[in-house]
Amino acid sequence: MDPFERRERPLLLTPEGKTCSMCGRTGGAGDRMVGGFGVVVCADCVADAHRLVTGGAEPDAADVPWKDRSQAEILETLPRIVAASRQMERFLFTWVAVARQSGISWAHIGRTLGVTRQAAWERFAKRLPDVPAADQDVAEEVVTEQ
Ligand SMILES: [Zn+2]
């Protein structure tokens, strides 16, 4: 099976420290949250989403989340977007680490992301938790190949 065609299924997550990608609420003990492909969704948002997708209503392009919000409410939203974005970034780093641990080269990772292997290495290598020492050799190779 082509892994890129496989549908990612949601997983039940430990909620502590997770940010709901739909409402921006931070999970804590006793919360129920699911996640998949970089998003985390709290139980309330899952229930709301289920009602929306099964309710028979048609999408309304004018129904945007910032409609009817005060400036204070808009500002309160910004850090929640940043938290969700950081969570997505951690998800990407986790998958890059998995790719590296499975033996995929920086060149292949870079090509997949549409960047050079040096760009991939510069973005990810220093922040990966288990970067093998051999990666220093890769870095040297990448730098000298330009
Ligand atoms: Zn939520």
UniProtKB/TrEMBL annotation:
Organism: Nocardioides bruguierae
Protein name, entry field: ClpX C4-type zinc finger protein
Taxonomic classification: Bacteria, Bacillati, Actinomycetota, Actinomycetes, Propionibacteriales
ATP-dependent Clp protease ATP-binding subunit ClpX zinc ribbon domain: residues covered: 17-56
GO terms for MF: protein dimerization activity; zinc ion binding
Pfam families with a match to the protein in the record: zf-C4_ClpX (PF06689)
